[in-house]
Structure formats: structure tokens, C-alpha cells
Predict the structure.
Amino acid sequence: MKLLEILRKRGASLADPESVKETIALQDHWSKGTKYQTVQAYSKFAKLNGIEWTAPKYRRARKKPFIPLEKELDALIASCGKKTATTLQLLKETAMRIGEALRLDWIDVDSERNCVTVNDPEKNGTSRQIEVSNKLLAMLNRLPKKNNKVFGGITAKGASSNFYLQRKKAAFKLQNPRLKRITFHTFRHWKATMEYHKTKDILHVMRLLGHRDINTTLIYTHLVSFKSDEYHVATAKTKKEKTQLLSEGWKFEFQDRTDGLIYFAKRK
């Protein structure tokens, strides 16, 4: 609706497909992605209203997503207020979309089994159950329980406004302008990328994200290569030490047969 309104304000007659086509072509400052989305929006409008038109072809360029360091995500979360910080921690651990998170009911939070369930997925996604940390459960349980919704009646627009204001303050306070590039969806990109890097299991990532088409999942998982200075390194010798590191998200790299040490890596 917003795109159709923009077309109308910029001189297009929505009843005239040639006028729409010309208006889109004249928007020199629009990216090909914006033009592609506008064509898709008008195509639905035309179909609904029985208007015949030949849609112009704009190829949508897939940009490499911004994947921040985990310490940057954690610093941003720590700088936010209680409700926003809890929302961001939930997005970080579950890769939920913001709409899915805001629709989360208290009944979907299982403190006994350390998991949350996405029962109302967006974009025709699948329902899924995701294991979460004790830290997140503690943050969730500190929120007021005024109704059935974990985050009350806040809308996505309201949550975004609050987040952008707190993000701006955090970026200035911590003197890190990269924080201003972090959006709600950045947490989803980050989680998907980290999970694939850790497991190399595309089906696991697909289930985590709630995708029905594996080609959609591939967009999230093959775009990032990590530099060596972005890693912490740890070693283990006993089975107990190895199990502990794996449970904390460390990834097995190799075993040195000369000293028996097993080396693990984890992104900073």
C-alpha cells in the first residue's frame, strides 16, 4: 500500500499501467530492489482490479548482509532498557522475526524444558520449538505479566521506534558506529550464519528459521567468511572439557596428536 501511494504521489495513475511503468522508470534514485518490489506490488493491485499490464523486469540484487561480532550484539543488548534488551536477546537466541517475537504468548515459554515455541509464524513459515538459555528465561520472567502476550500489546512500529532510539544512544556512548547498522533482522542473519558455520547442517538451519523452501535458507548461510582475528581459540583434553566447550557453542577444528589436545574455535 505504501508503494502504491508513493506511485500515486509521484504522478502515476494507478488505472493506467503505462503511467505506472513510466513513473517507476523515472525514479533514478531507487535501487533495482525497490523497483522490483514496486512492480510486484502493482502487479497484485492490477490483478485484483482486472487491469492488464506487462510488468517491466528488474532484477533484484541480493546484498551481503551485515553480520556484526557477537560482542557488538551483546554490547547493544546490555545498553538497552529491560523490555528492548529482552526482545533482542530473544531474537539473538531464536532467530525469530520481530513479528513472531511480539506475538509470543506466555504459554509458549517453557521454563521447565528451556524452550520457546513459535506457534504463529510469519511468511507462511513453519511452527518450531527452540532451545533457549537460562539467561533469556530469567530476562523473560522479569517482564510484567499484564496479559497473555509476553511483550504486551506493543506493535512492530512501536518496538522499532524504541529500538532505533536506544541503538543511536548506544552507538554514541560506546563510540561504535557499526551498532547503527544493526536491525531486528540482523539478529536473524547472525543466528543463521553462526548455526550453519557451527553445524554445516543446512536442514538444521532451515528448521530453525522456519523456512519451507531450502533455497531461501541458502541466502542466509553462504555469504560470510570469517577472518582469523575474529576467533577465540580454546583447547580440551578430557571428554568432559570437550563436552563443555561444544555445549557453549565452540566448533571443533582439529586434534594435535603430539600432545593430545583438541582445538576449538569460536567467533568473537
About this structure: Strands lie at 109-110, 115-118, 128-131, 231-236, 251-255, 262-267. The two ends are 41 Å apart (CA to CA).
